[in-house]
Amino acid sequence: MCSRCSPGRGSGAAGRPAGLASPGRRLAGCVAVAFLAAGLLIGGTAGRARAVGPLAALVRAERTVEAVVVLTDDPKVSRPPAGATGTGAGGPGGAAATATVRARLEAVTGPDRRVRAAVPVLLVGRAGYLAAYLPGQRLGVRATLAPPGPGETIAAVLFARAPPHSQGRPPLAQRAAGWLRARLRTAASVVAQPAGGLLPAMVVGDTSKLDPELKDDFRVAGLSHLTAVSGANAAIATGAVLVVLGRTRLGSRARAFAAAAALVSFVILARPSASVVRAAAMGLVGLAALAAGRPRAVVAALATAVMAVIVLDPTFALSAGFALSVLATAGMVVWGPGWCDGFERRLAARRPRPSRRLLAGATRIAQAVAVAAAAQLACTPVLAWLGGGISLVAIPANVIAAPAVAPATLLGLLTMAVATLHPPAAELFARLAGLPCRWLVLVAGRAADLPGAAIGWPSGPLGAAAALAGVVLALALARRPPTRRLLAAVIAGLLVARLFLVPRLAGWPPAGWRLVACDVGQGDGLVLRAGAGSAVVVDVGPDPELMAACLADLGVRRVPLLVLSHLHADHAAGLSGVLGRLPVGEMIVSPLPEPTEQWAEVEHGARAAGVTVRSVLSGSAGASGTVGDVRWQVIGPQRVLRGTASDPNNASLVLLAEVGGVTMLLSGDAEPPEQRQVARAGAVTVDVLKVAHHGSADQIPEFLTGTGARAALISVGVGNTYGHPAAATLASLRAAGIIIGRTDLHGAVAVVRQPSGRVALVARRPGRM
Question: Which position has the higher pLDDT, 769 or 263?
Fold first, then answer.
C-alpha cells in the first residue's frame, strides 16, 4: 500500500476498519488535547507575565532608556520607496532606510530605575545603525520604548535614538552562518529576478532580495511556505545527510548523531523560524529513536516536539506560523496515508487491472495529492482566522510545484558549499538551482492569475469556526461512499460558478488594485493594499459610516498602520469607522496637535482601542517602514510651520509610498509653504499623485506636475462650497497628460497595475476620466 506517505506508520491492527481508532489511539488523543491545553496555558501565562511589572510601566510611559539587547534574528531592512531622494531617516545617501530586528531584552536603565528582564522585543532603527549586525550580537542602545501592537508576542518596541554600541562579538557559529549566507546571496545574484531572490529565501530563509509581488503570488497560490525556509527544507537537508551516511560503515547511532549535528547546523544557518523549529524538534526526536534502535512513530514525535518547543519557548504557543506548521504536519501524517491507501485499493480493484507501471505512476500522484490536500485541509481553520481568504488553487499548485522543491533546496545548499571554495564555480550551480526556482515562480504566477484563485472569507473566530465546520462536514461526507460522488459534484459545481459567474457579477475591487481613494464626501480616505485582507489607511474622511463601508467593500479586515495626515475633520472625523471596528496596529499623526478638540477625540479613540499613537516628522525615527506590500516614507513636513494661512494644513504628513511596484505621493492638504519645503528636500518621481487639498488652486508646479505622475486622484465632495477642484488645477493636470480620477464624479477610484506594468485608474461608478 501507500506506506511511503508516512514513514513509520503501519496499516493498523489486522481486521480493523480503516480510520477506526483503537483504544490506545483514543487515549493518545486525550493526552494530546491535555498537553495542548497545557501549552496554551504556558503561552498565556508568559504573555501575562510580560504585561505587568516595572518594565510594562516604562513601556506604557514610552520612556527613553539605555537598553541591553541580544539580537535573535537578522535585521530586516525596509528600503525607501522608489523615487525617494535626498536625506531622510537613513541619512544622506540612505534616505529613510529603516531596519527592524527581533531581540531579547536583558536590561533597561530608565530615569530612576534599572530593570532586568529576559523578554522578546522588536528593535527599530536606521539601517545604518543595525543592518550589519548578526544574531547573537549583544548591543547597548539608547532607545524609546513603545507598546507592541495587538496580538504581538513581544514585550515592547524599541526605537533606537542613536547608533548602538556592540558588547563583544556574535558567537562563532553565527559569524560562520552569516558568512555562508552572504556567499549564497552573492552567488544567487547571477540568477535573474524573481527566481534569484527566491533561491536564498528557500534555502536559508534570506528574504532580503525577495520580490514583494512574487510573495503575494505565492500566498494566493497557497505556496507561502516556499517563499522562506520551512520544515520541508530541513527534512530534505537532513535526509540527504542520512542518505550519504548510509553509504558508509557507520552504525545507526553514529549516523543519528551526525545527522543531528547537521540538523542543528541547518537551524543556525536558516534561523529558527516557527516551521524550522518544529521540523528540527521532530527530527531530533526521530533521530533519538534511530540511535536507540526503536521504530519511528511520527505522531508521537510530533507531539513530543510540540511540547518540548512550547516548554522551552512559550511564545511559540501564540505563534500562528508554528500552529500552521504543526497542523500541516499532523494532517499529512494522520490523514494522508489513509487517503492514499484508499485510492490505491480502489485503483487496484478496477477491472481490467491496471498495469504495474500505471499503478505505480497513479500511486505517486495519489501520494502528492493526499499530502497536499491533508496539509491544506488541516490548516484551513487557522488560515481563515488570520484572514486573507481561502485559496482554491492551493492543492493543485502544491502538487505541481512539489517536484521542484527538493532540487532547488539541494542545489542551493550545494551552491553555498561550492561558494566557500570557488565563487565563480558556485555561479554555475546557482544557475542550475535557478531552474527549479523559475518553475516555482511560473506555477505561483499562473495559479494566482486564475479567475477566482482565492475567495473572500470572514476572519477571526467566526471565520475559523465556519471553516472548521466545513472541514468536518467534508470529512464526514467523504467517508460515506453514497455521498462521496455527490460531494465531489457539488464542489466542482461551486468552483465552476466561482470561475465563470462571480467575476462577471462582482467587479469591485478590481484585480491588481494598489490604492483606492474612497468616496467619503468632502474629505480624504485612502486605502493602500498591504496584502489579502490587510491595508494601510491614510486619512478617514468626515463620515465614519462611509469609511467603514469603503473598507468593507475592499475586503479589509485589519489595518496594521493608520495614518492621519492632519487633524481637520474632513480627514480625521471618520476615525470611529476604523478604530473599534477593525484591528489596528498603530497610528501615526501630524506633528501639530491642532485643532485641539479633534486631537482630544483622536487620543480618546486610540486609548479606548488600545492603539499606540505617534507624531512624526520627516527624517525622525519611525518616519518610514514596510507594512506587508506597502513601503512608506514621510517626506514632509521637515518642521512645523507657524504663521501660515493654515498651520494644520501645512503640517500635513506627506507620504511617499510604493505598493506592488506602483509609486505614489500622498500629500494631505499641504499648501504652497509645505509644498516648497518638501520640494527643496529633493526631487520626487512617482506613478500616481494624490492632489493636495482636494484639488484647490494652491499648488506649486513642482508638486502638481513635476513628479512625472501618469495619474492623479482628487478626493472631493459633490457640490462642495469650496470650489474644489479648481479649474486651474484641472487644466494644469490635463496639459501635462495626466489622467484624473475624481471621487465626486466617479465614486471610489482604484489605482491598478495592469499585467503590462502600466498604471490605470478604475472607477466604481461609470464616468469618463
Answer: 263
Distance CA 45, CA 51 (A): 10
Spatial CA neighbour of 195 closest among 404, 435, 413, 424: 435
Q: Are 713 and 689 in contact (CB under 8 A)?
A: yes
Burial of 450 (C-beta count, 10 Å sphere; 0-12/13-18/19+): middle
Read off the pLDDT of each residue in 487-501 and give the average, rounded to a whole number. Answer: 56
Residue 303, C-alpha cell as written in the block = 507531539
Residue 359 near residue 402 (C-beta atoms within 8 A): no
Cell 501615526 belongs to: 588
**For the structural domain made of 513-763, what CATH number should be given?**
3.60.15.10
Measured distance CA(559)–CA(763) in Å, rounded: 23
> Which residues have C-beta within 8 Å of that of residue 396, sequence separation ≥ 6?
447
CATH number of 52-170: 2.40.50.140
Q: From the centroid of its chain, how far is CA 20? A: 39
CB 513 within 8 Å of CB 529:
yes
Contact 742, 764 (CB under 8 A): no
More confident call, 743 vs 721: 743
Cα–Cα dist 39/63, whole Å:
33
List beta partners, residue 659. 630, 662
Q: Which residues contact 631 (CB under 8 A, 6 or more apart)?
A: 78, 79, 80, 81, 624, 625, 657, 658, 659
User: What's the CA gap between 542 and 694, in Å, rounded?
Assistant: 14
Task: List C-alpha distances in Å: 325 to 104, 164, 331, 628, 765.
Answer: 24, 35, 10, 21, 44
Residue 484 has pLDDT above 70, yes or no: no
Predicted TM-score (pTM) of the model is 0.64
What number of residues does the chain have? 769
**Which DSSP letter does residue 225 get?**
G
pLDDT of amino acid 748: 93
State the burial class of residue 473 (Cβ atoms within 10 Å of its Cβ: 0-12, 13-18, 19+).
Answer: exposed
- C-alpha 398/C-alpha 412 separation (Å) is 20
Which of 229-243, 479-493, 584-598 has the weakest average pLDDT? 479-493
Q: Torsion over CA of 483, 485, 486 and 490, rounded to 10 degrees?
A: 140
Q: To the nearest 5 percent, what fractions of the chain are helix, strand and coil?
A: 50, 15, 35
Q: What would the DSSP string read from start to end of 88-102?
A: -TT-TTSTT-EEEEE
Which pLDDT value is given to residue 91? 35
pLDDT at 218: 86
Please determine, for residue 9, whether its predicted confidence score (pLDDT) is greater than 50: no
Residue 621 phi, psi dihedral angles, 5° rounding: -65, 140
Q: 644-701 pLDDT, tens per residue?
A: 888 899 999 999 999 988 999 999 999 999 988 888 877 788 999 999 999 998 898 8
Which is higher by pLDDT, 183 or 304?
183
pLDDT of res. 292: 67
Peptide bond connecting 595 to the previous residue in cis, omega within 30 degrees of 0: yes
Task: Quote the CA–CA distance of 165 and 66 in Å, as a whole number.
Answer: 11
Alpha helices, DSSP H only, in 221-334? 231-246, 252-270, 274-291, 298-312, 320-334
Domain edges within the chain: 52-170, 335-392+458-506, 513-763
Question: Exposure pattern of 285-316 as b/e (b: 16+ CB <10 Å)?
Answer: bbbbbbbeeeeebbbebbbbbbbebbeebbbb
